[in-house]
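dude i think i finally got it to work??
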Amino acid sequence: MSSPPPFGEKLRAELGSPRRARGLDSSPRSRVWRAELSGTPVVVKQLIEGPEAAGRYAREVTALRLASRVDPPVAPRLLGTDPDERVLVLEDLGDQPPADDWVIGYAEALARLHAATGPDDIGLLPAWSGPTREDIDSFLGFAQTLGRTVPTAVPTAVRTELDATVRTELDDLVNRLAHAPGHALLHGDPCPGNDIHTGSGVRFIDFEQAALGNGLMELAYLRIGFPTCWCATAPAQPLLAAAEAAYRTAWRQATGADVQDDLTDACAGWLLRGDALVERAHRGTADHLSKLPHGDWRWGTATARQRLVHRLGIVGEMTTSGSELEHLGRLAMAMRGAMLTRWPALEPLPSRRP
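look at this
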């Protein structure tokens, strides 16, 4: 039997006493219950003691309050808080199965979430942080281990020059991402499972990693394979195109402006991040790309090698001749080919979520 939700005097005075509480599955960083307050179903969430627990709690509370500006809603209503115990009491949204074309409603809701904030909100949440030059070193080190810096048919002297060109492209990419304009309300982990499908649309939960930044960094999730998620999927091309169009339409309706730029930089940024091959508890602990030549590991619906092969292919396809990342694109396709030659049993990402 799970322990009852922590409901101190402050919450009891505001909301009453919870009844019929039952524990739900949750991440190692939190405990979650379904309960009733005066006959109304609610969800009680407590962020347990651990690294950055207070910061994660503050992010979630702030993000939920900012998201509450959006109508129709894109997040559950925040009914009460207890900062001392890091407890949130939330509207219970139920649990409907997603439709086959779920990515379209997901993308539309994501755009409206992103549009909740403006320039006056800068500073209320941390700024989004992108890949670093350490990520570049790790990525190029993995390419070298594969024996793929640039295509091997290129003469050695030219190949050396092109290697430097790739690094320059990546340095410029990291700089562009660090200065990407935008003050969108980013969820931080907009994964299948953190989207609740209701009769009135998709709503997002679990805002512990919320930030402000450029919405393209999360719109890219659909194309690059949900990089921070256990549920890595690759929607079929017609659904992907419809979802990205739905995002752009919803953003225009909410802000009166068109989405600026394409997704190339955002997808390339996710490709560089070795930490996007492991679950959150293992991020920042090792150079995960350097482990791939020696072993593979499964996380959720796919292995690390499957995830990386998908990302390499996407970036290779997006970086056409004459683009700012043309040489990276060539390298990505060469790396993808080398991985499929070395590990021919690698399968594509699943097209459907479990």
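The CA atoms of residues 220 and 290 lie 25 Å apart.
im so relieved honestly
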